Amino acid sequence: MAIWALVTGASEGLGREFAILAAQSGFDVILTARQEDKLQTLSHELQRAYHVSVVVLPADLADPEAAERLWRDASNGRQIGILINNAGLGRNGHFADDTNWPRETASISVNVVAATILMKRAVAHMLEQGSGRVLNVASTAAFMPGPHMAVYHATKAYMLSLSEAVATELRGTGVSVTALCPGPTETAFFDADNAVRATLITKLGMAPAQSVAAAGWAAMERGKRVKVTGVSNMVFANLPRFAPRTLVAWIAQIFLKRRG
């Protein structure tokens, strides 16, 4: 029976790179995101280059019912061996600014609710099969509070905590969960809705999506629980262990506040 990889947020950036890695590894691939045209283009590319089967299932995971619907359609008659929980949204702005709220509620729906539903369904499915791997794309944001991106950082902290907890529950089952925690990465994330490039943290440079995805995929294959990419990101991720949290939040604010 064919083994499938389900990749969310697959239309571009990290999701696109993960889909390519899945196809290169011989998995049939299920692509999902909001932009069906980009998914169809990627589907044709994967089929031509790697001779795998590809299914396109457009979905807006900000819709509370979309994740359950996506899982039903994706798993219908298929064995899902890999789930890449990559879809994510963020917003840069003052927490009290109510104009941010629609984007922030969508971020919670995508980053927390949909990711949790898909992970829960996938883990149960994989346990029945006796094997499987889940890769949750978190962030170095998971390790610290993020003034001006407070909701986004909170959602990634949730995903890191969930991943580590479930990974422990699954020990010895043949099913693994990996949390990938990159720093700023060259994707469309920083172009959308004021999750902007005009911050110090992005001006210092961003890692290529291809290298970040490759590191995450390798960590997932090894069953590693948490993967932080890059030396500087390791420093940021470990800062809360050695500095007062008030100081950590102040430093994060310097890097996250918009500058023009």
Gyration radius (Cα, Å) is: 18 Å
CATH superfamily: NAD(P)-binding Rossmann-like Domain
The CATH architecture assignment turns out to be 3-Layer(aba) Sandwich
How many strands appear in the DSSP assignment? 7
Strand order of the largest sheet: 3-2-1-4-5-6-7
Structure description:
The chain is an alpha/beta fold and 260 residues long. Helix content is 49%, strand content 14%. The chain has helices at 13-24, 36-50, 66-75, 101-129, 150-169, 200-203, 209-222, 231-242, 245-256, and strands spanning 3-8, 28-32, 54-56, 79-85, 132-137, 175-181, 226-228. The chain is globular. It starts with a strand and ends with a helix.
Question: Quick recap of the structure?
Answer:
This protein is α/β, with parallel strands linked by helices.
What is the element layout, followed by pairings?
Blueprint: E1 3-8, H1 13-24, E2 28-32, H2 36-50, E3 54-56, H3 66-75, E4 79-85, H4 101-129, E5 132-137, H5 150-169, E6 175-181, H6 200-203, H7 209-222, E7 226-228, H8 231-242, H9 245-256
Keywords:
single chain, 260 residues, alpha/beta, Rossmann fold, seven-stranded parallel beta sheet, 49% helix, globular
